[in-house]
Amino acid sequence: MIDELLSQDEINALLSGGGFGGGAGSDGSSGDMTAEQQHVLNDIANLFSSSAASVFGMLAGKEVTADIQKMETLSQEELVAATEAEPFAFRVLAGGLNNAPITMLVTKKGALTLADLMMGGEGKDLPDEASELYLNAAQEGLSQVVGAAFTSMSGLLGGKRLMPEDVSSALETEEWLPFSSLDAADSLWRVSASLKMEGLGSFPLEILMPLEVAKKIADEVHAVVAGKKEKEQPAPSAQAQQQAKQAPQQHPAAASPQQTFGGAGEPAPSFGNVYDQSSVDVRPAEFVPLTQKSVSGFGSKIDLVADIPVRVTVELGRTRKNIADILNMTPGSVIELDKMAGEPVDVLVNSKLIAKGEVVVIDENFGVRITEIVSSAGRVHSL
Predict the structure, then answer these.
(1) How wide is the angle at C-alpha 259 spanned by C-alphas 257 and 261, nearest 5°?
(2) Highest mean pLDDT: which of 6-10, 149-153, 206-210?
């Protein structure tokens, strides 16, 4: 939520003689950002970094913290010159937000660590080279980070639904730019964060947006917040204004001879409208009935990650082979699996069993008709 309090980054910037938001570029400028824009972008940076810590922590099963090192504006060519060799670049468009382009950068080691965690490893025994399997797993991990961040950003945008679109990634080894559609001299908004994993050390994570795109997003969020404040403080209605005008004229009526206090025809003392029961609406208090909390307790938790995309895999069967058997395989070799013909196949989400089904053909594509669902509690524990 955006408020008028200073963040720790802003306090540190003031103590060090800098400006608000850590938005100063390499030339000391903030890209002509307003204070409101910098304030909103600070919150967006925190959303992305906290989403990364949450997703990585869930994958690793360990405590993960994300510290924002700095926020700045710089050109694409300046960023490339300052970036470690062979960065892993994850690119996505923000569907629902005018397809705003966003790029995330991690080091090669960071991508391999994330990929190993995605595949059930501990992030320690990493290969020397990044295979396509590892790169795809790293892309899936960063997709979950973006999905979680978009879910949080939708709250800032008044509930607008955001979806990751046109997701792509690459291990950059030659001349490259974060946004190929922009010139090398075009300005970017950059957030540099450090992810620290218990037992795995730390590695950098960068969130990048074209500067003009970042400004437009900040303006839209600010407009939504300003609109909410106006709705929370509505203007007085015409009826209320009319009652306010008539109030001074009703005071003499309170001391009218027709109103008595204790009998004997004595006029009641004047206390304004305190005893004017005709202008007071008195009725019993009404309370919203309490709803019974879910017995399982999973509903509210699973809603937090309901919009995060996950990988669905259908497993026909498994078997074990010696390395010699694998090396002797040729085109036409047959591998016998552990499932009987006609037995249901397993439907896995992030390598966790959630259902069983039968293979069908839809037009020219394979599909699976679900025949058995794991219980709701079992599905939550699997995810």
Answers:
(1) 110
(2) 206-210
Per-residue pLDDT tens for 184-207? Answer: 999 999 999 988 888 788 888 999
pLDDT band per the 50, 70, 90 thresholds, residue 274: very low
Per CATH, the architecture of 8-230 is what? 3-Layer(aba) Sandwich (3.40)
Show the DSSP H helices in 177-278 as ranges. 211-232, 238-254
Q: How far apart are the first and last CA of the chain?
A: 28
Cβ neighbours, 10 Å, residue 329:
11
Residue carrying the six token digits 């973006």: 146
Q: What is the CA radius of gyration of the chain?
A: 31
Q: Residue 37, exposed/middle/buried by CB under 10 A (0-12, 13-18, 19+)? A: buried
Backbone angles phi, psi at 176, to 5 degrees: -150, 165
The 3 state secondary structure assigned to 6-51 is CCHHHHHHHHCCCCHHHCCCCCCCCCCCCHHHHHHHHHHHHHHHHH
Whole-prediction pTM: 0.55
Question: In CATH, what number does 310-382 get?
Answer: 2.30.330.10
